[in-house]
Amino acid sequence: MNKTILLGRLTKAPEIRMSSANNDMLLANFTLAVNRNYVKKGEERQTDFIHIVAFSKLAEFSEKYLKQGLQICLCGRLQTRNYEDKNGIKRYVTEVIAEQIDFADSLKKEDDNTLNSDEPVNTQENADTNINQDVFPSEDDLPF
Q: Residue 118 to residues 53, 58, 144: CA-CA distances in angstroms?
């Protein structure tokens, strides 16, 4: 099984382009800064910078809603590939192919108008219903 789950912040806005290798499919590239769980005594917390690729609808979502500094939770798969650069040197790349992206930040006032539009923000392409809609309409209905 190849499953990757990351929680981090975008280092800059996604770069959007058309992929010539995948029949002109929309492609988004961005880097996610992910803090490591442990800190060695006397040192600062280490951060990994993970390269992310999103295709098609997730690329559109990334272009519209993701920006530098935004914290997201991302599920995807790890992929390695290699290519030959202009100088004939073989290069190796490890990246995460995004399959689902969710917001992990609390909303700020300036983001309210963007996110409260009529367009659905659910990033799961195959989701039939939105599970988070008023499961417990009042506090009396809570199971605890």
A: 27, 18, 33
Number of H helices, E strands in the chain: 2, 6
Number of domains the chain contains: 1
Judged by DSSP in three states, 79 sits in strand
22: three-class secondary structure by DSSP: coil
Looking up residue 101, the CATH number of its domain turns out to be 2.40.50.140
pLDDT along the chain (144 residues), means of 10: 96 92 85 93 93 95 95 96 94 96 77 49 43 45 48
Q: Which pLDDT score, from 0 to 100, does residue 22 have? A: 64
Q: What are phi and psi of 75, to 5 degrees?
A: -115, 140
